[in-house]
Amino acid sequence: MSLSGKEFLDSAIQQFEDAADILGLEDSFREMLKMPKRTLIVSVPVRMDDGSIKTFMGVRVQHSDALGPFKGGIRYYPTVTVEEVTALAMLMTWKTAVMNLPYGGAKGGVRCNPKQMSLNELERLTRRYTAMIYNIIGPHIDIPAPDVYTDAQTMAWIMDTYSQLRGEPTPAVVTGKPVNLGGCEGRAEATSYGVAVCVRESAKKFGMPLKNARIAIQGYGNVGAYAAEILYDWGAKIIAVSDSKGGILSQDGLNPYKVGEHKKKTGSVVGFNNTKKITNEELLELECDFLIPAALEGQIHKGNADNIRAKVIIEGANGPVTPEADKILNQKGVKVIPDILASAGGVTVSYLEWVQNLQRFYWTREEVLRKLDDKMVKAFNEVAQYQEKYNIDYRKAAMALAVERVVNAIKSRGLWP
To answer: What is the reported pTM?
Structure first.
């Protein structure tokens, strides 16, 4: 089950309202932060390989820049809606705030099916979209990054287009670039590394050994696959993984490196040796220590939340657990480490990339991951303090911490004019 754009936005606003209630936030700030600062919708005409011209809908939503420039990914997906992108922009505001990064939140998207487009068509689409949003992005205004079905190549095209229009090389306009164009070592596995750190810190916090901890991962793209490998290297037992075509289960544990090789050859994890085939829905309901939903939003909902048997859920995707499911999981005693903390590794390393681009000075992969580890541990402990202070669940604690930081920044700035 995937949420519609409107349902996803309603869910994001509900999470904000819950945090606002905890903080006793006055109505003026609630109204201000429920709406994005700016929404730009653009038509993106592209000449296709067959000579025809096709027009795509593009959007960039900038939610808040109280703490610094807007920051957020761009996704290419057939069902992109303004409401979905608005919800994601709002989540980015809280994600950067909970990590204490000098950023606000934004998100972008183009409604297209990249799987049915050639590399040349995707390049023309990307360059046209960049030209259409050129006036509202920049190294000190709004810094895009990759998201669903966009990657380092997409960012290279955006950076080049922006630099050509500006008349000077501007690597800091996007993050998630190829390393040879100013990208950051460690960026590819950054989100996964943050997820893995949250598993490790949760294990410590809740008195669960990480060694041989049973882990199930829904979604075996970049986030899920790298997280599986990192946790496997740390001694955990990966018992199940899945992708869009289905899942595999082995109670004896999987070798994620070999699963990755199998997926590269066949296009799916399904059919890996000595495993039982399961559905994505069955994976979510497996008995395990840690469940990592790293696919799309709305995967754990009121219809299946009562069947969840994981002890801890670490949200690798954006919004995989609905507010209704949160309530049910809370009553069952299932701990949920929310997306704005658990999947913040990507934006944290994006920040490190941006800093390096501005200074033209670069760190090694080991230095980057060490800095990321420190920031993730600090944020995890700060959220845990809020959880204890207000006696609330971890999502509400992370939201309360983030909202308080943003509101304090707005209060310090004042209103102008």
So the answer is: 0.93
Provide the pLDDT for residue 1: 52
Range 400-404 average pLDDT: 98
CATH classification of the domain holding 84: 3.40.50.10860
Domains of the chain: total: 2
Cα Rg of the chain (Å, integer): 21
What is the share, in percent, of the chain residues with pLDDT greater than 70?
100
Residues 262 and 114 in one domain: no
Q: Known catalytic residues?
A: 107
Q: Tell me: the pLDDT tens digits for 150-170?
A: 999 999 999 999 999 999 999
Domain enclosing residue 284, as ranges: 190-342
Same domain, 165 and 19: yes
pLDDT band at 2; cut points 50, 70, 90: low
Q: Is 377 part of a structural domain of the chain?
A: no
Tell me what pLDDT residue 217 has.
98
Chosen domain end from 285, 309, 342: 342
Mean pLDDT along residues 54-67:
98
